[in-house]
Write a structure and sequence with these properties.
This protein is mainly alpha-helical. It contains seven helices and two strands. Helix 1 runs antiparallel to helix 2 and helix 1 crosses helix 6.
Amino acid sequence: QMMVACCQATSGRQSKAAVLQQCRTIVEKLPTIKRAFLCTLMHLLHDITLNKEHNRMEARNLAIVMVPNFFIFDQFSAHYLSDATECTAILIEHYNDVFGSGPQPLHSEPGTPNESVVEDSRGCMMTDE
């Protein structure tokens, strides 16, 4: 569902500010664990782009490599590949704009072990071990 919403947000002729707001809204609706994982992964990929002059890995290049690993594309959804790549590139390139201070601290959900989880300096969740 997130892929479809993200693809719709990036495929229109909207302003960059509107697309970033839609990406923020989509990310905020993710379950806490998935949001924390996405935040941490996008931060790592964003950090890689900071050395693009040396490693040639711009946000779009990373998105091209990563998107096939994020989603299961069948014959029906394969047409979303380009949009999913664009959406992922936006999340990487505009990490700070989309994630801001990151998700709220993780709280134990019913039926899950009570782990001590803290928010790191990026706003991403990490276990306190």
